[in-house]
């Protein structure tokens, strides 16, 4: 049985085209999911109908997030935002959580998951954190694992890969700040930047600040195990209902 996985798409501020990296699609198909790319719906009833059809939600990376969602004015270093995307993803996340369906989120996805459930974030880590930070916007090929993260052993992420230290790629200038229930932090970089968040254990909910899809494309088995865990959770959830 192949669970249907909704994959969020990106769009430029010209609002002309939807796009998504094929690495995201392949990571889902390689691990047994049936992917469909999602457009930005604005009607609540349609978003609700979509949530009931999906077996799992995969939130991809992309641009920045409108700080209005966590009660802030735009910081000078805030990058491009597409408000229609933020709205669609936040409403869909909340509905998927209410329905108890699995969610895997990467990069921007890790932040929008946190925002949708009541957390907040740094609009620009380099100007909003006063201690020295490592390079999180790597200038290396996408699949290069440039920095380490430390993973809490009592976590879903640890369960999936069985390692408390991992090297990940890194292409972000934003990061989560306050993480609130039902989410918790499960990995951090050595400078304290939050690199993974997850749910309280009842349902598969995992947000990763890096891009595991590029690592799957480079045949990294830890990354593939993360996707397989997600797809297996979708299959288990589907067969329960
Ligand atoms: Mn990073």
Lay out the secondary structure.
Elements: E1 4-8, E2 10-11, E3 18-19, H1 22-30, E4 34-38, H2 44-53, E5 56-59, H3 83-98, E6 103-106, H4 108-116, E7 121-122, H5 125-128, E8 147-151, H6 156-161, E9 165-168, E10 175-176, E11 184-189, E12 194-198, E13 205-208, H7 212-217, H8 221-240
Parallel strand pairs: 1-4, 1-5, 5-6, 6-13
Antiparallel strand pairs: 2-3, 7-10, 8-9, 8-11, 11-12, 12-13
Quick rundown:
This protein has 241 residues and is of the alpha/beta class.
Care to describe what's here?
The chain is α/β, with parallel strands linked by helices. Helix content is 33%, strand content 21%. The protein contains eight helices and 13 strands. Strands 4-1-5-6-13-12-11-8-9 form a nine-stranded mixed sheet, sandwiched between helices. Strands 2-3 form a two-stranded antiparallel sheet. Strands 7-10 form a two-stranded antiparallel ribbon. The protein is globular, with a radius of gyration of 16 Å. The chain starts with a strand and ends with a helix. The mean pLDDT is 97. The structure holds manganese (II) ion. Manganese (II) ion is lined by residues 136, 147, 170, 172, 189, 193, 195, 209-210. The site of manganese (II) ion (MN) has 9 residues, from loops.
Notable characteristics:
8 helices; 241 residues; alpha/beta; two-stranded antiparallel sheet; binds manganese (II) ion; 33% helix; 9-stranded mixed beta sheet
SSE class:
alpha/beta
Instruction: Indicate the overall shape.
Output: globular
Number of strands: 13
| Spatial strand order of the main sheet | 4-1-5-6-13-12-11-8-9
Q: Calculate the terminal CA-CA distance, rounded to whole Å.
A: 14 Å
């Amino acid at each position: 049985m192949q669970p249907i996985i909704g994959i969020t798409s990106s769009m430029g501020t010209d609002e002309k085209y939807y796009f998504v990296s094929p690495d995201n699609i392949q990571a889902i198909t390689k691990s047994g999911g049936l992917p469909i790319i999602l457009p930005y719906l604005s009607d609540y009833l349609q978003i609700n109908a979509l949530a009931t059809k999906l077996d799992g939600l995969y939130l991809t990376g992309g641009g920045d997030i409108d700080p209005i969602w966590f009660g802030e004015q735009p910081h000078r270093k805030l990058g491009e935002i597409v408000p229609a995307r933020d709205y669609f993803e936040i409403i869909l996340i909340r509905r998927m959580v209410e329905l108890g369906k699995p969610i895997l989120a990467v990069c921007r996805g890790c932040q929008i998951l946190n925002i949708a459930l009541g957390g907040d974030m740094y609009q620009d880590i380099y100007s909003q954190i006063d201690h020295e930070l490592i390079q999180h916007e790597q200038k290396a090929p996408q699949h290069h694992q440039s920095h380490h993260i430390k993973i809490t052993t009592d976590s879903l992420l640890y369960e999936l890969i069985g390692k408390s230290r991992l090297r990940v790629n890194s292409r972000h200038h934003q990061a989560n700040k306050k993480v609130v229930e039902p989410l918790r932090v499960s990995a951090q970089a050595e400078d304290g930047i939050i690199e993974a968040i997850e749910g309280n254990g009842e349902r598969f909910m995992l947000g990763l600040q890096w891009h595991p899809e590029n690592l799957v494309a480079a045949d990294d088995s830890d990354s593939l195990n993360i996707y397989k865990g997600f797809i297996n959770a979708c299959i288990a959830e589907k067969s329960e209902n």
